[in-house]
Structure formats: structure tokens, C-alpha cells
Request: fold
Amino acid sequence: MQFEANHKCKVGETMVRNPDETKFQLQHDRLLKAAAHCFNQKGYSGTSLKDVARQLGLTDAALYYYVRNKEELVYQCYLRAADIGRDAMDRAIKDGDSGLDQVRLYIRYHLEYMLGDRGPIAIMSEIPSLPPRHRDQVLEFSRLHSLRFEALLKTGIEDGSISPCDIRMTGNAIMGAINWIPKWFHGDQRTAARVLQEFPEILSCGLRPVA
Amino acid sequence: MQFEANHKCKVGETMVRNPDETKFQLQHDRLLKAAAHCFNQKGYSGTSLKDVARQLGLTDAALYYYVRNKEELVYQCYLRAADIGRDAMDRAIKDGDSGLDQVRLYIRYHLEYMLGDRGPIAIMSEIPSLPPRHRDQVLEFSRLHSLRFEALLKTGIEDGSISPCDIRMTGNAIMGAINWIPKWFHGDQRTAARVLQEFPEILSCGLRPVA
DNA sequence: GCATTATTTTAATCCCGATTAAAATTTTTT
DNA sequence: AAAAAATTTTAATCGGGATTAAAATAATGC
Reply:
């Protein structure tokens, strides 16, 4: 994903786009993470741009250099979250053997991202409050992701690694448990390790066939 | 739990407390449910009192007859949620046989309340944004509830109905899956029945000993 | 070191939502 | 039906947070 600065650049005329945008990219990335943290903590409307800015040692007005407005900030946070989720899913499908295996790996990879360098990731809990265009797009991404996850379950049931179940509900349960993590996890590495250790097993062991 | 009107009543003097407070109670209860619905949907800060009032066919100012302010509204929603959770827990412990049985029953009862007449129930996702006094109290209730749930798991492990696991993480996973439901459930009875049918099994089948 | 571009701040504006007091309406009591 | 109490509305205040423009500062290329 590529994000652009808010400032207008007449390319090839007076102003020139910064050829090496790494500085901007880096700050922009920090911004999305700080925002994700705040949004997860206090919700979209509950966090002021000042809150986010404070974490970056900036003024609220400074954020407008990186983002058109607050709504675009959540939007981009959500896009980033979708990206990361997709990434975890892709890897799980590639690396996984059976369906159960892929499910377990997806959970693992996703958690590694959430709790590791790429975290915090915004939980998409306020999609309805986005304006129609963005909402529909994010909703579509979210729907797609759910479908892919459900497909893993289906695969598992077909290859016998997962015992038959209501795919939709099972998917909702597993995703819910994952999405709720930011509500009680507050960054200590001890706990992060424990989550990484336990969750993939907890969330997938109920799927195994009784044999 | 008993809630009082915002209006001051000099009992035994000029003004007399309404002897039959059922009208007030009823409206107050409707208010908490409407608020819970909004809060679950758009978050605490994201919902205006006007939003809540609209659902009741009232003006925003009218709500102040029932609660001191917006914060007290969430607070009471959370107290109500705690009450209902406690209720489900009490019944589960009373009715349940083994630890696993109690866990399953707790999930069942809680879902019946959430999706039935007592719903919607506010998910306590914004405890941190309450003012210190209320926050600490709700946090305590929440902590207690989690402990009781973990105790069920412990009982189950001891009586052999649940296979050994990380109690804390398992509890978090199950509670998370439940708490997330309002994010995707939007009131259709078809789905409600399905949740009720599937969730207790999904969330507890992973606990059984492999044997 | 100068000129240009990139980044941030200062200092306003603007609007929305919470809150309140007083007035109006509805309900209950007698 | 009048009086009292309960409930709701109207109309105002008030502050906070989003947003913007212009100015200031930092960084970079030459």
C-alpha cells in the first residue's frame, strides 16, 4: 500500500515530489500505529487528534501534513489492518498443509503481526461510522477476509483435519476472540509470548475431529 | 439493581416519591437498552444523546430526567451488564454438573440474555474512559467475573471434565468471542437462534479432554 | 552559506454535542 | 375539574475538537 502526502505537488513544474519519500513514509507509518493504538483504546470518536499527536511528540495540526482529515486516518488504519490480515492469510495458505494446519498458521501469523513489529493494528470495530464510500470498501475487504477464513475451515472439513461444524459461526467465534485481544492486552512482552503460545492452540483445538 | 430519578424528592415533606415507580423504571430500562444498542454500534463517544433519544422517540434533553449525564448512562449500562453476567454465572454454577457443564451453561445463559428479552447488553469495551471512581468499580466487577469464569475452568480441570490448559488465556479467548458478537450480530432472529445453537458447543468443545 | 523544500507550530474559526433552566404538556391525585 | 406531580420540550449556553491558513522552523541541495 502507498500513501501520499496531503500537500499538493505539481510534478514536473515548480514543485517536485520528494524523490526519496522514506522520511515521510516512516512518520506516516508511525502515525498509523499511534492512531491504531488510540482507536483500539478509546474508540474512533473517543480519541482526539491531540491524543494521537501527543504520542508522536507533535501538535494535532501537524497530522494534517500526513492525512487529509481524521476520517482518512481511520480509513488508512483499516486499510493497513486489512493488508496485514491478507498477508497472514496468504502466508498461512502457502505454508499450511491441511486445512487445520492453515487455520492454525493463520492465527499464529496474524497474532505475530499484531503483537510484534507491525502492531498495534487497528481492530475494525467501527466500520459503520465511516462515510459510505470508505465504509463499503472496507466492508468488502472485511467480508472477503472472512470468506477466505471460512474457506480454510471448509478445506479442513473436506480433508478430514477439521470435524464438521457451522462454518460461519465458528469463523465468527475465532475472529472475535482474536479481535478482542487488544481490549485486554496492554503491551507487556510476557503476556504477548503467552498469547502467541496459547491462542493458536486454544482456538483450533476445538476443531479437531473427535476421532 | 435500583436506579433513581434525577429529580430531587423531599420524601415525607412537600414532594412525595412516586409510590409506584413502575413507569419510571420501565422507561429507564428502555433507555439503558437503547443506549446499549447505540454504544455497541458506534462506541461511547460516537453516540450522541440525540441518537439514543431518537430511538425512544424523545428529545435529548429528556434523557436528563432519567440520568444525571451521559457518563452515568454508560456507567449504568455497564452495571446492568455486570448484573446480567453475574446472573448467568450464578445460574450456571447452580445448574451445572461438572466444570465443563458449568462453562457450557454459563455461555448458554449469557447468550440467551444477550439475544433475548434482556438484550441488547452493553459490551464493556470502554471502561478506561470512565472517570476514576466508576472505572475502578466497573473494573472490579469485570475482574471478579473473569475470576469466577476462570474458577469454572479450574473446577473442570480438577474434576477431569476439561483438559488442562492455560486458564487465563482460555478465559480471554472465550470471553472475547462472546463480547465480539454484538459487532456482527444485528438482531435477526434466524441468526440469534444459530448463535444460541452453535456457540456454547463451539466455545467449549475445544476444552474436552482428548481422551 | 543561500535558496528551496519539507515539516511543524501558532492562532484563529467553526460546529456539534453535552448540559441547564425555564416553560409547556401530560399524568395522577383528590 | 382543579391541583399537584411527573414527564418532556424549547431555547439557550458552553467547551472541546476538527479544521485551516499563515508563519516559523528544520532539512536538504547546490
Summary: Chain B has one domain: 22-205. The mean pLDDT of chain B is 89. The helical segments of chain B are 22-42, 49-56, 70-95, 99-115, 132-158, 167-184, 189-205.
